[in-house]
UniProtKB/TrEMBL annotation:
This is TraR/DksA family transcriptional regulator. One of its GO terms (molecular function) is zinc ion binding. It comes from Telluria aromaticivorans. The keyword Zinc applies. Gene3D superfamilies: DksA, coiled-coil domain. Residues 89-121 form the Zinc finger DksA/TraR C4-type domain. A zinc finger (dksA C4-type) spans 92-116. Keywords: Metal-binding, Zinc, Zinc-finger. Pfam families: zf-dskA_traR (PF01258). The keyword Coiled coil does not apply.
């Protein structure tokens, strides 16, 4: 038995599919290709040694970063949809407790209960410094 009520499951499914469509649309309009995992960034094709090249490298790095964020989000959404369909949604991945429906409605891709999420964020802040 899925821990979520049928109406909540349906609502979440609707939102996740909508979010995925929106995201795909955004990615498509930016990169010109939705099928490719790697974003097609023209600047990478002509990395020269000119000052011009350095500038477009910076720009492409920023675009790459955005695309990474979006493909990670897309992955999160895919996972959340899979869990909804398999009945595993609404269960904390760390401690196995039920995630409150209100929390899922606020953030459909959420995978952890509040306590575990807070713990994870604490770990990330202390254990892993900024990568730049
Ligand atoms: Zn938990």
């Amino acid at each position: 038995m899925p821990p979520l009520s049928h109406s909540v499951t349906e609502e979440l499914s609707k939102r996740l599919h909508q979010a995925r469509d929106d995201l795909l649309e955004t990615l498509r309009s930016r990169t010109g290709s939705a099928d490719d995992d790697a974003p097609a960034i023209g600047a990478l094709a002509h990395q020269g040694q000119s000052d011009d090249g350095a500038q477009s490298e910076m720009l492409s790095h920023n675009e790459q970063h955005l695309a990474d964020h979006e493909s990670a989000l897309l992955h999160e959404i895919g996972v959340a949809i899979g869990k909804l369909e398999s009945g595993g949604a609404g269960i904390c991945e760390t401690c196995g407790c039920d995630i409150p429906e209100a929390r899922l409605m606020a953030t459909p891709t959420v995978r952890l209960c509040i306590a575990c999420q807070e713990q994870l964020e604490k770990d990330q802040h202390t254990g892993r410094g900024p990568s730049m």
